Amino acid sequence: MKTVRQKRKIVLAMAALLAVFCLFASPLRAVDTTKMCSLNIAAAGQDDTVASAELSAVSVSARLYRVAEITPTYYYNATKAFAALAAMTDADGAALKLHDYKTFTATQMQFAAEQAAALAANAEPAKSFAFENGKASLSGLQTGLYLLVTDTTDTGAHIYTFSPVLLSLPSMSEDDGSDLYDVSGVVLKPARTDALTSVNLQKTLS
Predict the structure, then answer these.
(1) To 5 degrees, how large is the angle CA 84–CA 138–CA 190?
(2) Residue-wise pLDDT tens digits, 7-54
(3) Residue 61 φ then ψ, to 5°
(4) Neighbour tally for 152: CB within 10 Å
(5) E-assigned strands of the chain?
(6) Which of helix, strand or coil describes residue 104?
(7) Exposed e or buried b for every residue in 172-185, given b needs 16+ CB within 10 A?
(8) CA–CA dist 139, 39 (Å, integer)
(9) How far lies 26's CA from each of 18, 22, 30, in Å?
(10) What is the 8-class DSSP label of residue 143?
């Protein structure tokens, strides 16, 4: 009887180990690269009341470039126009590969965005659009890594300068890690300087 109990314990232990193994060895959820995506962007956050109000009153031109294709396992392969991004060296001399973009730090992401923006002049945008009322809604986008380039905008009172931004479609939910093919809540943070109005120009010259 003791032997039977021991065997039963061994079998149960092996079953538990197998369950744990299957849990961690199972493949990651695959990105559906055939699914179309959408993107909702605000030109400025509601917390910046001045920028939000001023940019809602003008049309802000922007372009979206597909910098890379995305694989089912969240790796990125640069498109032809952005092939130079496949291997980069940042300001600290660190080697960066766009393939591993998901592991980049915030600083490295911004560096990659600036490198991509420098190549965008010779690339065809996936979408050319304008922010109206401070917002833009884009649909029918393929999966991939996108570069958002927003034009410097003069509202009369201020000049707003936007940094280039890289956006992944889909992106991963911060809540449960699920894939988000319809991405919302993207908020830009432009730098603001005084516009050279006649009044400001007189102050500058005086």
Answers:
(1) 70
(2) 454 544 454 444 433 333 334 568 999 999 999 999 999 999 999 999
(3) -80, 145
(4) 13
(5) 37-42, 60-70, 76-78, 88-89, 95-96, 127-131, 135-141, 144-150, 153-154, 158-161, 165-169, 171-172, 179-180, 182-187, 191-194
(6) coil
(7) eeeeeeebbbebee
(8) 6
(9) 12, 6, 11
(10) S
Query: How much is the pTM?
Result: 0.81
The pLDDT value recorded for residue 5 is 55
Q: How many helices (H) and strands (E) does the chain have?
A: 4, 15
> Which residues does residue 41 pair with via DSSP β-bridges, in sequence order?
136, 186
Tally of CB atoms within 10 A around 166: 24
Structure tokens of 200?
């400001």
Distance of alpha carbon 179 from its chain centroid, rounded? 13
**Which residue is associated with the tokens 């516009």?**
195
Location of structure tokens 């000049």: 159
Specify the amino acid at residue 102: K
d(CA 116, CA 109): 10
* Rounded-to-integer distance, Cα 160 and Cα 195, Å: 9
CA atoms of 126 and 144, how far apart (whole Å): 11
Residue of 173, 149, 121, 142 lying closest to 76 (CA atoms): 142
